[in-house]
Design goal:
Tetracycline Repressor, domain 2
Length: 175
């Protein structure tokens, strides 16, 4: 994850990853089928972590603040997504099996909207995009976060205050 976060998919080299892990490049190829398989395994490890704070048993506020805490505690996945967006030729590490509404995350937001957790006058697709951007903002623009808040974006005070402000915004989106 560190190598992909530092250099993106295109810039990461399997040999560098193997050296960093103290393994032979052949082992990575054998177990993961190469760089693409390894990138997918990294994404799956994030999805496993994600299940602990973003399950359907969590409130929308708990889910969004869970993303804030997880992303600020370990910004590598956000950096991987940033690289993916900056390099359109990179293979997608996103989810497959897109529903008519979009991703499974959008389907989950639509379910929450139907249950009254989200106002009926907002589009869950755009709400997802807005909150993904909000969660990633302190990672991709730490200088802006620092300038506008006066806080270090990797500090506990910033994390607590930012998560609270996102909870307030979510409260207003309930309608």
């Amino acid at each position: 994850m560190e190598e992909f976060a530092r250099k993106g998919f295109a810039g990461a080299r399997v040999q560098d990853i193997a050296t960093r892990a103290g393994l032979s490049q052949q082992l990575i190829t054998y177990y993961f089928g190469g760089k693409q398989g390894l990138a997918q395994a990294v994404k799956q490890s994030w999805e496993t972590q994600e299940a602990t704070f973003a399950g359907s048993d969590k409130s929308l506020e708990q889910m969004v603040t869970g993303y804030v805490h997880a992303t600020l505690a370990n910004p590598l996945m956000a950096r991987m997504f940033l690289w993916e967006g900056l390099n359109s030729d990179e293979p997608s590490t996103g989810q497959t099996g897109v529903s008519p509404l979009g991703s499974p995350d959008v389907t989950e937001l639509a379910r929450r909207q139907a249950a009254g957790e989200l106002s009926g006058d907002v589009d869950p697709r755009f709400v997802l995009l807005i909150f993904m951007g909000a969660v990633a903002a302190p990672i991709i623009m730490p200088q802006v976060a620092r300038r506008v808040t006066g806080l270090e974006p990797d500090s506990q005070e910033f994390e607590a205050r930012y998560a609270n402000e996102l909870r307030v915004v979510l409260h207003h989106l309930r309608g």
